[in-house]
């Protein structure tokens, strides 16, 4: 047996260990131990950006890395593909896909967006889509997705329609109404909508989008294909790809699903006329299907894709499994958000039911968050001065609203807090006290230096 990998029994297969049945669920002290590698001096309430990986999964990953380094040829020829297939099969069951060949494993949601938008760009360039046909996206789409649209779609002749969603937002109906307006604009003058890109959870500002309902509207309105960018979804909201009904659905596994960075799945719904998708990194598996292409893009570290069985073991240590974790995190982040909003005299950016494991809390207007640069300066100051890691969002005032530093202007700055199993009340108290201290000292964003 390999000393570096206790799960190996010498047959070249990474077997899930046969652990004794746990008599109880994971304890708080065990959670602390699993995440003891986190910096003890930082209130890490930004799980949404980079995720978090438990120590036991890091150890499992190291086992795979050492196995490759010990005998790369054996690893490549006898282990890698079968183990990636095993991980894909587990993902298929988690997301309720019909076929394992609907599931590809890629580096992250950015890679998945490039795969889908590359295909759309080719369709425009090759004349299958007509110049001026539209792609619809939400205005708060992730910046990398916007750049992929620019790189693949607009330069090939596609027309982009941006749907501006309201924020703060009070209901799904507001989002649905704006989305219908956007589709109507895209279809004006007889244009065809070739692709709609819908976030399941927007990143900044953070809101759960009624993805299933928007997909249904797309079908009713004749949108050719729908791509759901769900970078934050798996482990944070319930995911059932058949229920959602999109053609393409991507979610990172390193944000809320405890995998090491970076790994994501891309679901491509199998139909009689499924699109011919390809990985943007062309290797010798080109032409063998996206899942096979994605499973080998040259020599690299594939270990983050191979620890999914061990991640599921870790998740099972929590009462209720992934759904239990999701509910625990959602309830906690809402409670922390409401505590902060009360302390600052502000409000949440969306009702609790539209919060995933993250929430937006209005910052006191006296801080003077008047632009994106102010938001970045405040975020940096909170990190460097107070040891608080939290994203800050600048929200452009709506028509008729005026931002002000006198305490009576509209809220233009929001903190996006995350809650993951390792977080504690002290993390959010530190953020609360940091903002309170800045207000007491009369500090505004305009006084802070850009780092």
TrEMBL record:
Aminotransferase class V domain span: 82-273
Domain of life assignment: Eukaryota
Keywords noted in UniProt: Pyridoxal phosphate
Pfam family for this entry, one: Aminotran_5
The UniProt record lists the keyword Transmembrane helix: no
Protein name: Aminotransferase class V domain-containing protein
Organism expressing this protein natively: Penstemon smallii
């Amino acid at each position: 047996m390999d000393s570096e990998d206790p799960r190996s029994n010498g047959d070249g297969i990474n077997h899930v260990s046969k652990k004794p049945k746990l008599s109880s669920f994971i304890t708080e002290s065990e959670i602390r131990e699993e995440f003891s590698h986190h910096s003890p001096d930082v209130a890490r309430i930004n799980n949404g950006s980079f995720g978090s990986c438990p120590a036991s999964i890091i150890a499992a990953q190291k086992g795979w890395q050492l196995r490759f380094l010990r005998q790369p040829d054996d690893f490549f020829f006898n282990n890698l593909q079968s183990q990636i297939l095993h991980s894909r099969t587990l993902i298929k069951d988690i997301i309720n896909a019909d076929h394992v060949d609907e599931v590809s494993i890629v580096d992250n949601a950015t890679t998945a967006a490039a795969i889908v938008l590359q295909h759309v760009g080719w369709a425009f360039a090759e004349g299958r889509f007509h110049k001026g046909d539209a792609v619809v996206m939400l205005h708060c789409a992730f910046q990398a997705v916007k750049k992929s649209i620019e790189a693949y779609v607009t330069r090939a002749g596609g027309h982009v329609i941006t749907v501006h969603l309201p924020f703060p937002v009070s209901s799904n109906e507001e989002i649905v109404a704006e989305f219908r307006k956007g589709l109507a604009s895209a279809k004006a003058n007889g244009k065809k909508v070739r692709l709609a890109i819908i976030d399941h959870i927007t990143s900044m500002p953070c809101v759960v989008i009624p993805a299933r309902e928007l997909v249904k509207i797309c079908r009713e309105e004749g949108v050719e294909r729908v791509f759901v960018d769900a970078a934050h979804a798996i482990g944070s909201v319930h995911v059932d790809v058949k229920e959602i009904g999109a053609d393409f659905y991507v979610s990172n596994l390193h944000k809320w699903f405890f995998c090491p960075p970076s790994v994501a799945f891309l679901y491509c719904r199998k139909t009689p006329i499924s699109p011919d998708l390809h990985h943007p990194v062309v290797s010798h598996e080109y032409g063998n299907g996206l899942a096979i292409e994605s499973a080998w893009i040259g020599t690299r570290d594939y270990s983050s894709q191979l620890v999914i069985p061990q991640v599921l073991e870790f998740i099972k240590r929590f009462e209720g499994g992934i759904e239990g974790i999701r509910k625990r995190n959602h309830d906690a982040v809402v409670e922390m958000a409401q505590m902060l909003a009360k302390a600052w005299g502000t409000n949440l950016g969306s009702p609790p039911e539209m919060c995933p494991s993250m929430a937006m809390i209005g910052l006191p207007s006296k801080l003077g968050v008047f632009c994106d640069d102010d938001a970045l300066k405040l975020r940096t100051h909170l990190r460097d001065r107070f040891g608080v890691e939290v994203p800050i969002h600048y929200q452009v005032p709506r028509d008729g609203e005026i931002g002000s530093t006198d305490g009576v202007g509209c809220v233009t700055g929001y903190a996006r807090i995350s809650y993951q199993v390792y977080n504690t009340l002290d993390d959010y108290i530190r953020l609360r006290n940091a903002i309170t201290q800045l207000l007491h000292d009369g500090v505004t964003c305009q006084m802070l230096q850009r780092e």
